[in-house]
């Protein structure tokens, strides 16, 4: 594409994007000013100055913004890679270790939190950009809302339906040449620095005393490219061919059943302009077939036709009550000061030192020709009483700021000191659910960043670099093109500095849930100092417990053996008793045979008499005196 055609496309894209977003840009600038405390317009300040009143700003909005932003920072979750349906667990574990290192290395969590605060919480929109530095490392930076203009028709958070975006920066000569070494000093001298073309007005003018500032523009747009595809008719598998024609010819000779066809695949192109002059037009330098930026959005309503209402943050709904609150405060101070002393009325010539009246009170001095009465040459003027409902109106505006935002007293700290802690946490959690859509969008953006990180590491980190980072050789599936799409998906986990700390946190949770995990495993994974000493103490304790367990086991074994021997002895005694009983029976039978019939009958009768129960013996009755028994 020629320089003229590319420049023409840029101009058309800018006109379309600025027309589609100019309403939002004005509202977002007001949102940011209100957050910073710039809550009076120049006309309002001039009006108050003429009345001698102060333009007070009691910024209640900042407190609400910092509350939501602080909650997000305090409850950050790390990025980890989980396998889908148990597939590629080893590769997922390696990617999790790499992701933890990468996010810490490029300070991604702080950058994402800053983008969340400046975007969803304040203006409604911010961006994070992934790029590859001179050393081949992946880095991340935040881009404000007023430096990017996107296709106004996009509706998806991943920007899949965004056809283009424009980005502008102001750089010095040194920064320009660092980013683009091919740009020489003569090239920059031929360009007019410190000039304004009226584009991107919300960025403000280029200002740096004694230095030349150049406008640097990037024009990112989606397009397609022709590629050769290999397909196996037998299995239906296909893959993009990235080699040269000679290598392709050799592959087809070795595998003649493969077929080749040409297809169009989506990609991204970048055009670079310095002071409106095209410098480069190339494919995405990172190698991604997607935009490098990811938006962090607040309240996004793509169905709305008005661009100023399509995207908004928390601040948007708080501006009106905050403005009225400031007005009431300014009026109250003026009324109170006027109530102390509104001014003086004095007869001309009644005072030797007339400056005395001008130094006392907040009001003015009026002069009259006649006295007010005998010995009354001047009179003090007082203001009226403040209506009681006036202060109540100001308190209502204060409450509106809190209630409109969705916050409640529990979030800011309840005044009920005797409320149970669990109830207070429940109320805080219930209040924060009103901001849940902001947190959901934030997590979705983080997952999009994770998918792009997987692709970038496959493109720019070789096996040796991966091995240095995770201390093991990457598996074959690590460099699969569709790894992040089909095999694993980035998920949020506990935020830790390393994979070992995450492993320890997960072990501790499993231990708390009752899993049979030994303490030694927890101590090995524990991120603490002097673990060797702790291991020695635990080893000694476990050794003592093991010895005690062995002694207890030996005692149990001895007891079992003793019980066995006693059982054997009891069995022998029982057998002996049964044998003796049988012998006695035989002897008795022999003696019986020797008896005659009369003796046998007498013996049977005696036996029956012995088997009958004996009647209890009767007590002997004492004889009464004088009576004899006849």
Description:
The chain has 630 residues and is of the alpha+beta class. It is built from 21 helices and 16 strands. Helix 11 links the parallel strand 13 and strand 14. The longest helix is centred in the C-terminal third of the chain and has 64 residues. The radius of gyration is 46 Å and the shape is flat. The chain starts with a helix and ends in a 19-residue tail after the last helix.
Draw up the topology in text.
Layout: H1 3-36, H2 42-51, H3 61-74, E1 77-83, H4 89-105, H5 108-123, E2 125-132, E3 138-143, E4 148-150, E5 164-171, H6 173-179, H7 185-189, E6 214-231, E7 238-241, H8 245-254, E8 259-274, E9 277-283, E10 293-297, E11 299-300, H9 307-310, E12 311-312, H10 319-340, E13 343-347, H11 355-359, E14 364-368, E15 378-381, H12 388-405, H13 409-412, H14 421-432, H15 436-460, H16 463-470, H17 483-487, E16 488-494, H18 499-512, H19 519-525, H20 531-594, H21 597-611
Parallel strand pairs: 13-14
Antiparallel strand pairs: 1-16, 2-3, 2-10, 4-5, 5-6, 6-7, 6-8, 8-9, 11-12, 13-15
């Amino acid at each position: 594409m020629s320089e003229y055609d590319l420049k023409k496309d840029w101009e058309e894209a800018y006109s379309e994007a600025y027309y589609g977003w100019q309403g939002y840009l004005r509202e977002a600038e007001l949102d940011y000013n209100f957050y910073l405390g710039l809550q009076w317009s120049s006309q309002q300040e001039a009006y108050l100055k003429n009345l001698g009143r102060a333009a007070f700003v009691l910024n209640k909005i900042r407190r609400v913004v910092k509350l939501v932003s602080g909650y997000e920072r305090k409850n950050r979750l790390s990025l980890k890679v989980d396998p889908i349906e148990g597939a590629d667990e080893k590769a997922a574990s390696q990617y999790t270790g790499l992701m933890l290192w990468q996010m810490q290395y490029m300070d991604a969590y702080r950058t994402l939190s800053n983008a969340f605060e400046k975007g969803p919480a304040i203006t409604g929109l911010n961006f994070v950009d992934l790029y590859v530095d001179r050393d081949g490392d992946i880095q991340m930076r935040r881009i404000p809302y007023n430096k990017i203009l996107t296709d106004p028709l996009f509706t998806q958070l991943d920007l899949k339906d965004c056809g283009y975006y424009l980005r502008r920066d102001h750089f010095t000569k040194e920064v320009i040449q660092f980013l683009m070494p091919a740009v020489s000093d003569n090239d920059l001298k031929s360009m007019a620095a410190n000039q304004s073309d009226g584009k991107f007005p919300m960025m403000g003018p280029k200002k740096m005393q004694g230095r030349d500032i150049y406008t640097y523009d990037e024009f990112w747009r989606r397009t397609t490219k022709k590629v050769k595809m290999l397909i196996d008719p037998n299995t239906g598998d296909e893959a993009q061919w990235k080699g040269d024609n000679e290598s392709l010819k050799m592959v087809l000779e070795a595998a003649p059943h493969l077929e080749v066809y040409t297809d169009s695949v989506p990609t991204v192109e970048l055009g670079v302009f310095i002071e409106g002059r095209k410098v480069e037009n190339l494919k995405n330098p990172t190698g991604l077939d997607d935009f490098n930026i990811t938006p962090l959005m607040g309240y996004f309503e793509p169905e709305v036709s008005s661009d100023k209402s399509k995207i908004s943050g928390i601040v948007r709904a708080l501006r009106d009550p905050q403005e009225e609150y400031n007005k009431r405060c300014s009026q109250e101070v003026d009324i109170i000061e006027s109530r102390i002393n509104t001014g003086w009325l004095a007869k001309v010539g009644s005072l030797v030192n007339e400056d005395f009246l001008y130094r006392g009170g907040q009001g003015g001095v009026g002069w009259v020709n006649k006295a007010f009465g005998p010995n009354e040459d001047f009179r003090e003027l007082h203001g009226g009483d403040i209506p009681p409902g006036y202060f109540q109106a100001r308190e209502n505006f204060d409450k509106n700021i809190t209630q409109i935002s969705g916050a409640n007293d529990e979030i800011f700290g309840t005044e009920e000191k005797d409320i149970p802690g669990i109830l207070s946490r429940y109320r805080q959690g219930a209040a924060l659910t009103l901001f849940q859509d902001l947190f959901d969008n934030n997590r979705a953006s983080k997952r999009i960043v994770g998918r792009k990180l997987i692709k970038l590491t496959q493109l720019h980190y070789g096996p040796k670099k991966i091995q240095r980072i995770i201390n093991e050789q990457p598996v074959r599936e690590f460099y699969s093109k569709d790894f992040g799409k089909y095999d694993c998906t980035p998920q949020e986990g506990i935020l830790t500095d390393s994979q070992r700390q995450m492993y320890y946190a997960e072990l501790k949770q499993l231990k708390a849930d009752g899993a049979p995990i030994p303490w030694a495993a927890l101590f090995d994974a524990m991120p603490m100092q002097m673990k060797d000493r702790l291991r020695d103490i635990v080893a000694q304790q476990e050794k003592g417990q093991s010895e005690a367990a062995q002694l207890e086991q030996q005692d149990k074994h001895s007891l079992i053996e003793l019980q066995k021997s006693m059982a054997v002895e009891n069995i022998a005694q029982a057998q002996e008793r049964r044998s003796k009983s049988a012998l006695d029976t035989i002897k008795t039978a022999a003696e019986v045979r020797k008896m005659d019939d009369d003796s046998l009958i007498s013996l049977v009768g005696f036996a029956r008499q012995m088997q009958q129960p004996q009647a209890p013996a009767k007590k002997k009755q004492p004889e009464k005196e004088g009576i004899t028994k006849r």
